[in-house]
Amino acid sequence: MKIAFVGKGGSGKTTLSSLFIRHLAARGTRVVAVDADINQHLGAALGLSEEESAALPAMGAHLPLIKDYLRGANPRITSAETMIKTTPPGEGSRLLRLGEDNPVYTACARNVPLDGGPVRLMATGPFTESDLGVACYHSKTGAVELFLNHLVDGREEFVVVDMTAGSDSFASGMFTRFDMTFLVAEPTRKGISVYRQYKEYARDFGVPLKVVGNKVHSDDDLEFLHEAVGDDLLVAVGHSEWVRAMEKGRGRPFAELEGSNSRALETLYETADAVYPQRDWERYMRQMVHFHLRNAESWGNTRTGVDLAAQVDPSFVLREEAAPQPV
């Protein structure tokens, strides 16, 4: 299952995504965590020191390696240089699985020990001074989009992505890559503004969306969220002494998380798992191709000098029972 956590800056989406990752790890579920935010804080939220977080390899810096590995023996992709962030897989492409070892994980992932077992953590990499004036952050998140496009994941396998704040993910088709999107919203007008944007954009693409109320301290806060988002409100999370201790560097066993918050995380898991039977790989591929063709026409063909529409393999559908990897 592919899960996104979105919300405005400061909403607490990184905290909530890290708690969900911990909850999955405690269940013994296989997890790959991806920090796709321009402000890279997921590693710290999972308990890494500042030095360990800073040492995480940047997916954006390994984009040539990622492209070259994923294109495999696909005859429709003539070189790694002609791949863009939306390039879909086809016959001969190398696909990714959560539990395997491969050059992409070797270069871009690091194991983070958590209660219940380690999870793989990947990060786009921060926006650096050298990027100013010559690059946009979407060039870095393109590595994440390619990763998701080529990923074969099944039940009890989770990729959890801490997305960039606001509605920036709509700059590409990445918002359609997820089985479930959890939007973290505070009980304020600003807090629900991103929800309204997401709801509008996602409506035409059948993107499942649920709201997680955060920093909910009173019945009035809860009523405000109910009035604003209606049935999309899934759970509400209040103050957590466990989280506060973690933010102070005084980590405690995850089993000591407050019962109400543990139940909220289990609700997130159950909600995500419930959409598994509704997975439609053919629609997933159609949406992937749709955004690839749009990007190809708007800038990709000019950038690469080739007709990127030719990369689309009309007979290929990504599925859980995908063929073995090419050597």
From TrEMBL:
Keyword match Nucleotide-binding: yes
MF-aspect GO terms: ATP binding; ATP hydrolysis activity
Keyword set, alphabetical order: ATP-binding, Nucleotide-binding
One Gene Ontology term, aspect cellular component: cytoplasmic side of plasma membrane
Gene Ontology biological process: negative regulation of cell division
Positions of the CobQ/CobB/MinD/ParA nucleotide binding domain: 7-226
Coiled coil: none
PANTHER family for the chain: ATP-BINDING PROTEIN, SEPTUM SITE-DETERMINING PROTEIN MIND HOMOLOG, CHLOROPLASTIC-RELATED
Protein name: ATP-binding protein
Species, as recorded: Streptomyces cacaoi
Lineage: Bacteria, Bacillati, Actinomycetota, Actinomycetes, Kitasatosporales
